[in-house]
Amino acid sequence: MNTCARGLLIAIAFVACPLLALQAQLPIGRAALNGLDYPTIDFRPPIPDEYNVAGVPVLLLEDHALPLVSVYARFKGGYGLFGRESYAAGTALPSQIRYGGTKELSPDSVDKALEYYAIQTSFGGTGEALSANMNTLVQHLPAAMELWGAMLAEPAFDSTQVEIWRARQRESIRRRADNSGGLAFSEFNRLLYGDHPIGWEMEDTDLSPALLSSQSLAELHRRVVCRENLVLGLTGDMRWQDFRPLLEAFVRTLPVCEGTVPPSPIPDIREEPGVYLIEKDLEQSVIVMAHTTDVRLADDSSYYSATIGNLILGGGGFSSRILSRVRTEAGFAYSASSLWTMPRRYDGLLGAITRTSPENTIPAIELILETMEGLRTAPPEAGEIQTAVERIVNGFVFNFETPGRIVSRTMFYLAQDLPSDWLERYLNGIQRVTAEGIHDALARYLRPAEMMILIVGDPDRIGRDAIAALGPVTVLDIN
Amino acid sequence: MAALLWLLTPALASAQLSPGERLPVHSLTLRNGMRLVILPRSGAPTVSFVVQYGVGGVNERLGTTGIAHLLEHMLFKGTTTVGTRNVDAELALFPGMDAAHDSLVRARSSGNSATVHRLDQLIGELEDSARVFVEANEFDRILTRAGAQGLNATTTNGSTIYFVELPSNRTELWFALEADRLLNPVFREYYSERDVVTEERRMRVETSPGGVLYEAHLAAAFTMHPYGVPVVGYMADLEVLSRSDVETYYRRFYGPNNAVVAIVGDIDPDRVERWARDYLGPIPGGETPDAVTAVEPKQLGERRVVVEWDAEPALRIGWHVPAGVHDDAPTLAILTSLLTGGRTSRLHRRLVIEDQIAGGVFSSLGPGSRYPQLLQIDTSPLAPHTTEELERAIYEEIARLASDGPTPNELERVRNQIAAGSIRRMQSHLGLAFQLAESVSLFGDWTETFRFSAQLRAVTADDVQRMARLYLTQQNRTVATLVKKDGS
């Protein structure tokens, strides 16, 4: 439809009219929507092959599109499982496996070999696991496996590299307040989770030589990097019969575990609402708010209803209420979203995050709380539910976009003790949600009056009285 | 496997086409000047779309900085049919809002704060009254329901790039929406979106030590060329940009002749070509944008700028170097890799591992590649070490590289990584779409991005030495230092 054909509009539709001298031949915009046919996608997602090498589960998805191979290793055992005294060593372990050299190669020789063969590695950790990934041109796979395997199985934990890491951590502590967003999240976690690994922040005392040394790293390595803790994933331009001997050689270098890793500690999350303030002279405040919820990652209707409810609340970008109201309507913020964590084994958090100018800080908080209250008291609209469900259903193919994504996800299911057909169950569960179920979940779990709210910003510009009107205020001294 | 051949026999391989150049890309130029590159790929049924307009921060003037980026935001606001319940009623309210805004700008320049406040409220009320007719975020919602991933855009100094991924059976939907966006945009909710952009500036610059140092560094290094102006715009300009400024800018720069479209994924290229001709072909050609004629004069001596901030110290050093299309560009890219590309690089080894005076060190060429740019180094000291120590060590290493050149092993490591990188960069649909669009936009040829890899591998130690001596001089550099403000 050519809107410029309308009389009044000719004078005001300054943007569109000059370009409308010629019209597109096919319907466009809204006029096109009902006329388009979307052919059914005929796609069978590839399923990783499962193998076992000396007791180690292996997932393989061959992919011969490019001459590359990726290997993914996940070991049970992260910084959160061995107590605060191992926090620094647990946090340092992945990087020190990468940087600390091997029994046969100095750190410098490892660096040179990796760069010469253009091998990409990444070593990381969560509170519960250590991951080690490697990507190489297929022609270098034997050399890459040998080198990457030696880094994992026979790390030297060179003391100079440990000192470099310690110094960098101390500098990070010194710079913590430079990043207002990072500061807000770390303090928020500390307040809510206290002495649980989620609430820990690295301190100078964690970094003492008694707690972090080549020896403490070696001891922790022995507890984590062993066969029973390992799951392997492989993708790339290689067949199983060629992979197998390389994997067998690697697994043989790993010892049998001396014991099982401790279970993940259950957090005792602070329940008391309140307002916490970090005073900082900033042109933009950071706001984080949340309370606990007991929705867990599980194959049940509460989880699926909460997932859709969260997309409607603030997890669905521009299609969700928080961003629509805080950004689109009020212009208060560039980013604003809900925060709803649903861990597998313990309670999570439900809340929101945004950043805005000092003057709009209180109005933004009030708008978010009001938006939550609105969803708690009245059911979401049918169109909102449809958007959230279709987003997941129609975007489902992206779960299979790359072999690496498929294998990594399957490894995650194994680690979380989820069934191997979890993705199928998830899709079915999402499609079964009802308006009543979503409203029940939001009404039951959303408690805007019980939020713990943290503000990082300038109270004189925000308004001290207005902050106090939100609830009892505690000023946090970050020094 | 060509990658294997490169590594084993680089001299022989130079005459062959690289794997990238052998991709089955379909190129197409519509009669209105729009250029498309279409690449079918097997795998999951998804498709990536990138639309790159040759307009960005460099096309702005002082007083209207940030306009390219604000326009990028506005192009998600819908059209005459998408995002509205009654477009006529909406548009009828625009003149009143805009007139109030013009008055507000005049009141602000005369310091009449009471009037400014009153008019600001009036504009908000008028925009709220228009909102009754708005179907907020409908453009986003249509694509979200279609299963879209990563719907977004980015504005750089030289380009504005829109991108999204869709299930491949929604390919025609993208054409129907994108043609509409090009033809019929409506800049609704303008004033609240402008506020959103000011918040984005607060987040990226005004509360970020790195952001404020970067802005000060570019402003000192570029006195004439618009690379010295921040893409997000200055706050004072953002607060007065009018809707008509943005409309004018849109008409000047968003013609199809200034756009490159890259489509990569599980598609039938012939059908996509037909859709391109049918949906995008009828769009009339736009104006030919003015070229950027500003040329940064030769720097006549070292420049230094200090930013006092409530944060720990940081350092940026930039040397003027030619544009990305210049013959020296491959050598400069190699020089950058030798300085900071990986743990064996010169500066990482010296600053982080040997002297242990920095937490990390990074380098890049920028802020854009279309015009003469900077080779820039970014680092920060580990206390109690200082930015002065970092500078000394950096200059010593550069002098050593200029005097002795890189070793054969160093160059070989960099070349091998380039060879592997040229394979890895083909893993993602979206990544390839970005590369193809950028290559056509910058060089006019999609293959150039892959040929560049071959040029990189041909760089010699002598080339590196020559570039270091020519460009990395004291006279040619600008140094920006962030120092902790007293009392903070």
List the helices and strands and how they pair.
The complex is a heterodimer of chains A (479) and B (488).
Chain A: H1 7-12, H2 30-33, E1 49-53, E2 56-62, E3 68-76, H3 87-99, H4 107-116, E4 120-125, E5 129-137, H5 141-153, H6 159-174, H7 180-193, H8 214-224, E6 230-236, H9 240-252, E7 274-279, E8 285-293, H10 301-315, H11 321-329, E9 336-340, E10 348-356, H12 361-377, H13 382-394, H14 403-415, H15 422-431, H16 435-445, E11 452-457, H17 459-462, H18 464-468, E12 473-475
Parallel strand pairs in A: 2-6, 7-11, 7-12
Antiparallel strand pairs in A: 1-2, 3-5, 3-6, 4-5, 8-10, 8-11, 9-10
Chain B: H1 2-8, H2 10-13, E1 26-29, E2 35-40, E3 46-53, H3 67-74, H4 87-109, H5 113-131, H6 138-145, E4 149-155, E5 160-167, H7 171-183, H8 190-206, H9 209-221, H10 235-238, H11 243-253, E6 259-265, H12 269-280, E7 303-309, E8 314-321, H13 329-340, H14 346-354, E9 358-366, E10 373-381, H15 387-404, H16 408-424, H17 429-443, H18 448-457, H19 461-471, E11 477-484
Parallel strand pairs in B: 2-6, 7-11
Antiparallel strand pairs in B: 1-2, 3-5, 3-6, 4-5, 8-10, 8-11, 9-10
Helix pairs in contact in B: 3-8, 3-11, 4-5, 7-12, 13-18, 13-19, 14-15, 15-19, 16-18
Report on the architecture of this protein.
The complex is a heterodimer of chains A (479) and B (488). With 479 residues, chain A is of the alpha+beta class. Chain A is 41% helix and 17% strand. Chain A is globular and about 65 Å long. With 488 residues, chain B is of the alpha+beta class. In chain B, the strands form two sheets. A six-stranded mixed β-sheet of chain B has the order 1-2-6-3-5-4, sandwiched between helices. In chain B, strands 7-11-8-10-9 form a five-stranded mixed β-sheet, sandwiched between helices. In chain B, strand 9 and strand 10 form a beta hairpin. The longest helix of chain B is centred in the N-terminal third of the chain and has 23 residues, at 87-109. The chains are: A alpha+beta (479), B alpha+beta (488). At the A-B interface, helix 1, helix 2, helix 4, strand 5 and helix 6 of A face helix 1, helix 4, helix 6, helix 7 and helix 8 of B.
